[in-house]
Amino acid sequence: MCVHSHPSRQSLCKTGKGHWCFIKRAPELSIEQTTEILLHLSPDEAANLKEGINFLRNKKTGKDYILYKNKSRLRACKNMCKHQGGLFIKDIEDFDGRSVRCTKHNWKLDVSSMKYINPPGSFCQDELVVEMDEGNGLLLLELNPPNPWDSEPRSPEDLAYGEVQVTYLTHACMDLKLGDKRMVFDPWLTGPAFARGWWLLHEPPSDWLERLCRADLIYISHMHSDHLSYPTLKKLAGRRPDIPIYVGNTERPVFWNLNQSGVQLTNIKVVPFGIWQQVDKNLRFMILMDGVHPEMDTCIIVEYKGHKILNTVDCTRPNGGRLPGKVALMMSDFAGGASGFPMTFSGGKFTEEWKAQFIKTERRKLLNYKARLVKDLQPRIYCPFAGYFVESHPSDKYIKETNIKNDPNELNNLIKKNSDVVTWTPRPGATLDLGRMLKDPTDSKGIIEPPEGTKIYKDSWDFGPYLKILNASIEDEIFRHSSWIKEYYTWAGFKDYNLVVRMIETDEDFSPFPGGYDYLVDFLDLSFPKERPSREHPYEEIRSRVDVIRHVVKNGLLWDDLYIGFQTRLQRDPDIYHHLFWNHFQIKLPLTPPNWKTFLVHCE
């Protein structure tokens, strides 16, 4: 995992005049780098390396590596896909002897350049250092910072019963009592996420707002709306606008859209990665970045009296795969289904049978990956969370029926088959007493379930107010002028990429919306042709519900609301994932929305 400093990253504060402004934080102190020998080849083994791709294994550790040889030039990496940790094998479609294929999702890596070629323009593989030793053998070295949580280590102290309690509220939201301090993770407790696509599966405890208001600090892992919930924070800000909210120093600020949201929060604290944040003499926490999506995803270690709680949230490879072992409590996502793929795709191979088999296979892979991770890290207790959502709006019935998610009990049973880790499937309002559970996992008071008769699953959702906000965008004055199309995509700033996209505004059933827009965008030169160009080009057709696409366009929001929120239907030819395109519209759009006021003035 490469860690880069971002001197332009900023935190937020409010001026005396009531306006939000950006405050640059102080530069971080560097962390000493260390070198680890991952593989040592003898002189004979080094001499017998063939030209091209060599698959290597450290017999002592069982770890696999790839070394690419081109005459005297050597490049090496771990045999581990950056997407979800799959193993690479020989690519039978490669006639040049430079690429390998992942066994999980068919991602392809050109090891001569260490760039992924499927999906094109996506990631670069982290390289290892190749050095020759004094005897003409070869060393594969990894340069790493030391595990930051090992700085200023603390020995675990005895915990009194009731001293550390973890209460599950809903989805990824936990309420932690840590001595006389309270900390809350990722409060999504009301309203939808991803425009109107996700709704809470569990009924939060009735006192959820009081619990938030009692918190001494809140951690929000990333900007996705099932973790950063503006409807929830709006209710909190009405009573405690100054509550300290901590976020990691991600490339795209977690609260990039705070001004636009209208939520009045005044105490957002942006902290550097890998540095202990001291709350009191017994409590500290450290935020870490994701190895796959460091620009937006984070995870956290909370430590109280030497006992660590690890929350990896949604990270694909938290901290690049380096995590503390034998923590007191670990929690992570488990469910899958947090993507429009493949449910929203059609044409070609995307039959209902293919989708069902793909979803079944991917969910099983995720379960096995999580079980292996828990087995490797050996926490005392493991809790699956951050996957309790449902596509409850009637218009999304197809998605709800198709997007099958993992069962937390199935994961916990798999973990228990392979390890002695204690597992906890949380229910809203259930409380785990960490002191009791560490002393005796069979203690009947170790986990207090909610009172009998407590409502666990939601059976109704208040769609009206949120759909009203979305529907208001349909008749906005902006869309009376077809020139909004050029204005919007010029603002978006994505071009010089050979891709033609047809955008179609639709009704609830993804049929063309009467009077809606249907247009082409050629991203090679950012033009808007009437017909597809004659040159060879990849093509995508994106049908979007008119209320959501216009709300996204009007407010300069990220396309996660469309894609992760299941508000599109897609076809593509050829069947290639265009990482640069989707990454731009899901992560890299400008931080401020289009200037529609100026646009309308010029339209008069």
From TrEMBL:
Its EC number is 1.14.18.2. It catalyses: CMP-N-acetyl-beta-neuraminate + 2 Fe(II)-[cytochrome b5] + O2 + 2 H(+) = CMP-N-glycoloyl-beta-neuraminate + 2 Fe(III)-[cytochrome b5] + H2O. GO terms for biological process: N-acetylneuraminate metabolic process. The keyword Transit peptide does not apply. The keyword Iron-sulfur applies. Pathway: Amino-sugar metabolism; N-acetylneuraminate metabolism. Pfam families: Lactamase_B_3, Rieske. Transmembrane segments: none annotated. Its main location: cytoplasm. One of its GO terms (cellular component) is cytoplasm. It comes from the Eukaryota. One of its GO terms (molecular function) is CMP-N-acetylneuraminate monooxygenase activity. Residues 41-139 form the Rieske domain. It is found in: Cytoplasm. PANTHER family: CYTIDINE MONOPHOSPHATE-N-ACETYLNEURAMINIC ACID HYDROXYLASE (PTHR46522), INACTIVE CYTIDINE MONOPHOSPHATE-N-ACETYLNEURAMINIC ACID HYDROXYLASE (PTHR46522:SF1). Belongs to the CMP-Neu5Ac hydroxylase family. This is Cytidine monophosphate-N-acetylneuraminic acid hydroxylase. It comes from Equus caballus (Horse).
